[in-house]
Amino acid sequence: MALIGSTGISGSAYAEPTVSIVMDKTTYTYCEKLVYSIEVSEVTGNPAIIHIRDEAGGKSSAIPIPITSLSNPIPSISAFEKEVFPSGKYFIDVQYLGIETTAEFNLVDSDNMCISEAMQPVVIRWINDEFTDGMLMSGFQNIVDEELINIPFVFTEKNIDTLNIPDWVKSIGKGWVMGVITDQMFVQNLDYLIDKKIISFPMERENEI
Length: 209
Description:
The protein is of the alpha+beta class. It folds into two domains: about 1-110, Sandwich (Immunoglobulin-like), CATH 2.60.40.2550; about 120-209, no CATH class. It is built from five helices and nine strands, in the order βββββββββααααα. It has helices at about 120-125, 135-145, 170-180, 185-195, 200-209; strands at about 1-5, 20-25, 25-30, 35-40, 50-55, 65, 70-75, 90-95, 100-110. It is elongated.
């Protein structure tokens, strides 16, 4: 753990309130999630206000974070994606108790590749039978970098609903949505099933017989 941002004075009967940002680590690569904690000396019932900004001055909109205890872990929902976050230095600005404090971290380039967060609602709708198997594969084809997974199918309005994926594959999709199965495991399974023509159009399966 690294204590990066800390503001306030202690050591007297009239100690001023303190707010600190404790980073899980200060260097991240793509596909990792930002993890840090906000530590405070008082819980007022008001949220902390957070901005994430880059070294060029661009910053997120205000993010209200509930402060319910003296130490508040703040895990990120989404991993860093290369298409969204350029590598470089970033800052976390926190406002609470009338205090402003800042921590910083570095995002370094790497060969790590991950499934875009935009695929999660597609996979969920596929699991719930709201999207066809072809719609799922089309989603991977259009949203996910082909260096991570190459979808070899050519989809049209006539054939997109005829692609077949065995129902048991949905358990793999559920594991990915729940975070039990990694991006790499998910795409490796899909790659294998496509290569073996287990995921295929009806005509391809007939030709194999």
